[in-house]
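Handout, tutorial session.
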Amino acid sequence: MFRRPQAQSPAAVAPAERVTSVLGPGINWKGNLRGSGGVRIEGAFEGDITLRGLVVIGETGRLVCQTLQANTVIVAGTVSGNITAEKLEIRGTGRVWGDVIVVALSTEEGAFLRGQVRMEEKIEIPADAEPPVP
């Protein structure tokens, strides 16, 4: 007769961010990356990234850019450029040279960051992150 309302778990409300594309070790890529989804970079990437989703720079990954914008960024390799993200995690092997604008920042022992950190209450990834519809 009386039912308790079912509360939705946070995992059910927001889809889990996951890696859908990989730039493997030994691959060198130059250009810009825009869209939505998750990408893991284990090789070398040169260019700007604007992504609604997850960006992982693996231990063997190197990114050189003006700007990296994504919902979540995990750095275990090296990034030379400015990062704007809701969540930024710099692992113990991670190296970042550039300014960061974040909502949440976490680092492990041994992580390296040379630049300024600005924390905001909310970050918006630009609408042009979505690829144009043909």
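The second record follows below. Compare its token runs with those of the first.
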Amino acid sequence: MTDRLALARRLDDAARTVTLDEAYEVQRAGVALRTGRGDPVVGLKLGFTSKAKAAQMGVSDVIVGVLTESMRIDEGGTVDVSGLIHPRIEPEVAFRLGVDVDPHDPSADPLAAVVQVAPALEIIDSRYRDFTFSLEDVVADNASAAGFVVGSWRPVESADLQNLGVVMEINGEVVEIDGEKTQMIHW
């Protein structure tokens, strides 16, 4: 059996000294464990794209997380939260790309690759109490990704993709508005 104190010391050391590059290495290793068990990658998620959300969480960069098939929840489905620590749900806008885009390539233009958009819900679940973490912590934790639901895809027509947001309503009452965006999707 692994020595728990040794693991705790390694985790404590990593929390104090890890770099962002190392955090992404940890994330890739975790995703490799999932894909090795037959859980394929089905998409990426971006975190902290809203300046307001980034400021609220005390981080300064957009981050990338990985979505796998086991995280997908069918529209209208249910979620068993008993295995989660403290799940939250966030309204999102999902983008379907017509070509692959390297999220780490500074010359890439992901908006030019968008062919469809859809309303989405993301389930986040952080290992950190009160979602208090460093940028490196949340990257290593796969951007807190725990699950996602994607609604009906719609073609991109004249939407201003840089200014797109979503309103979440429950029984006709607005409960959350995603970011400071002005063009909202109501599906």
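Points raised in discussion: DSSP finds five helices and nine strands in the chain.
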